[in-house]
Design a protein that fits this description.
Organism: Sporosarcina highlanderae
Structural class: alpha/beta
Number of domains: 1
Strand order of the largest sheet: 3-2-1-4-5-6-7
Protein name: SDR family NAD(P)-dependent oxidoreductase
Radius of gyration: 18 Å
Keywords: Oxidoreductase
CATH class: Alpha Beta
Family: Belongs to the short-chain dehydrogenases/reductases (SDR) family.
Distance between the termini: 38 Å
Order of helices and strands: EHEHEHEHEHEHHHE
InterPro entries: NAD(P)-bd_dom_sf (IPR036291), Sc_DH/Rdtase_CS (IPR020904), SDR_fam (IPR002347)
Strand content: 15-25%
């Protein structure tokens, strides 16, 4: 029987990997015997994550602002020198801003768009250059149900995640001839530190749960199978797609 879910590469990068879902993605990839390199913007959090993840395998980390082209380009050069190649890139770094359009100013809008969209573009650009040279690689972007579903107080976030979906489709078309796959994972309501305030409010929590066909928030574990599928050989003929892991929210 064919090993449909074999993992052919050796090295993965996870942006925003020091905490939250990025941390869980990094841990899952380490458990697949991949060498994993994370980045985040806070040095203390990067070092803490490395300390906690080292029991699972070969983990490395750097402090990088993904909105800075200078920092991203230099980081990619450093990785290539130190590790030789990158087989998988998980563009996970992201922020959310909960404000109405009247409350939000241009600086706050720019912050969300810069981290979520520009950061994904810059990391994809510079890692894709290396993947094109090696004629292989997989890029997994992190979108959200917010890319399809209008959500209160998240105008910038929803717009940024909708951008990620079309970015994924367009980049997949561009890079396909170089044997590079580009796909996205779109989580629904997953229990994380980012939405802890929602889960602690009985009214908001109840409203959200009632909108989920499967009846509750998901956990980070619910996303891991999709991530591993997208980096494995089982997904080799899939590119340009966004896979929703949302308990059925988009169907409701």
């Amino acid at each position: 029987m064919n090993d449909y879910f074999r993992i052919n590469g050796t090295t993965a990068v996870v942006t925003g990997g020091a905490n939250g879902l990025g941390y869980e993605y990094a841990k899952a990839l380490l458990k697949q015997n991949l060498k994993v390199i994370i980045c985040d913007i806070n040095e203390n959090e990067v070092q803490l994550a490395i300390g906690n993840l080292k029991e699972f395998g070969h983990i490395f980390g750097d402090v990088v602002n993904v909105t800075s082209e200078f920092e991203v380009s230099n980081w990619v050069k450093k990785i290539v020198i130190e590790h030789g190649r990158v087989d998988y890139l998980v563009n996970n770094a992201g922020v959310v801003q909960r404000k109405t359009i009247a409350e939000m100013d241009g600086t706050e809008w720019d912050r969300v768009m810069d981290v979520n969209v520009k950061g994904t573009f810059l990391c994809s650009k510079y890692f894709a250059e290396e993947m094109v040279n090696q004629r292989s690689g997989k890029i997994i972007n992190v979108s959200s149900i917010a890319g399809r579903k209008a959500m209160d107080l998240r105008l910038a976030y929803c717009t940024s995640k909708a951008s990620i979906e079309h970015f994924t489709r367009t980049l997949a078309r561009e890079l396909g001839a170089s044997n590079i796959r580009v796909n996205a994972i779109a989580p629904g309501y997953i229990s994380t530190r980012m939405n802890e305030d929602m889960r602690n409010d009985p009214i908001i929590y109840g409203d959200v749960v009632n909108s989920i066909p499967l009846g509750d928030f998901g956990s980070s574990d619910d996303l891991i199978g999709t991530l591993l599928f997208l980096i494995s050989s089982a997904s080799d003929y899939i590119t340009g797609q966004t896979i929703f892991v949302d308990g059925g929210v988009i169907t409701a």
